[in-house]
């Protein structure tokens, strides 16, 4: 198994940073898989095979979304920028510039964020209680 997602010696990185790097790598892998399925769907003539691939791509969308949410919950400035860009009508680049300026005004990314807030629970346990 490769560890090329690290740009610093892994044994010098704290566990939370290593977890963060793993999820970044996973996010990239899920995005690649989504693209692969998109290409396969574009050329596959068999409707049953297409339906299977469409279902598989849906799983990749789900995994990508979970990875992204995990990372956003641990990086408040990233989450703030994403909130200013995602699901907004209009010019994407303009929203991005505005969101970045608002989020980074006044400090470094993650400054003043406690370790617990940055690397806390996803709250999945709480969601299970609601579903029951």
Structure characteristics:
single chain, 132 residues, mainly alpha, 6 helices, 0% strand, disordered C terminus
Describe the biggest sheet? Answer: none
> What are the secondary-structure elements, in order, as H or E?
HHHHHH
If you average the pLDDT, what whole number results?
84
- Gyration radius, rounded: 18 Å
Task: Report the strand count.
Answer: 0
Helical run tally: 6
Strand content: under 5%
Distance between the termini: 38 Å
Low-confidence stretches: 107-119, 126-132
| Helical residues, percent | 55-70%
Briefly note the structural class of the backbone: mainly alpha
Molecular shape: flat
Please outline the helices and strands.
Elements: H1 15-43, H2 47-74, H3 76-85, H4 92-104, H5 115-118, H6 124-131
Helix pairs in contact: 1-2, 2-3, 3-4
Can you walk me through this structure?
- This protein has 132 residues and is mainly alpha-helical.
- Helices cover 70% and strands 0% of the residues.
- The protein is built from 6 helices and no strands.
- α1 packs antiparallel against α2 (47-74) and α3 runs antiparallel to α4.
- The radius of gyration is 18 Å and the shape is flat.
- The model is unreliable at 107-119 and 126-132 (pLDDT under 50).
Short synopsis of the structure:
With about 130 residues, the chain is an all-alpha fold.
């Amino acid at each position: 198994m490769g560890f090329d997602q690290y740009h610093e010696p892994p044994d010098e990185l704290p566990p939370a940073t290593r977890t963060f790097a793993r999820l970044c790598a996973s996010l990239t892998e899920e995005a690649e898989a989504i693209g692969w399925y998109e290409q396969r769907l574009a050329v596959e003539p068999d409707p049953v095979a297409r339906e299977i691939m469409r279902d598989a791509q849906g799983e990749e969308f789900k995994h990508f979304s979970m990875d992204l949410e995990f990372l956003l919950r641990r990086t408040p400035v990233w989450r703030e920028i994403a909130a200013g860009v995602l699901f907004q009508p209009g010019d994407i680049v303009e929203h991005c510039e505005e969101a970045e300026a608002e989020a980074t005004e006044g400090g470094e990314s993650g400054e003043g964020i406690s370790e617990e807030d940055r690397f806390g629970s996803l709250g999945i346990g709480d969601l299970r209680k609601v579903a029951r």
